[in-house]
Design brief:
By secondary structure, the protein is of the alpha+beta class. The protein is built from 1 helix and 3 strands, in the order αβββ. The model has no long low-confidence stretch (mean pLDDT about 80).
Length: about 60
């Protein structure tokens, strides 16, 4: 792993696996944010919508 990847892991590692209350995540509900490491060194911020949110499963 490169030094840059190491720094990124340290920066995002604090958020990994935690759910963060974030009222701006979705305009339609009180969504939470969760940081996950999808692949090694690849971090993705996922929006967790409320079950009542129109964006939650609305497209399927
Ligand atoms: Zn939503």
């Amino acid at each position: 792993m490169s030094a840059a990847q190491d720094r990124m892991r340290n920066a995002f590692g604090q958020l990994l696996g935690r759910t963060t209350q974030h009222s701006d995540a979705c305009p339609d509900c009180d969504a939470d944010l969760r940081m996950v490491e999808q692949y090694e060194g690849v971090f993705v911020m996922t929006v967790l919508h409320d079950a009542t949110c129109p964006a939650y499963g609305g497209a399927s």
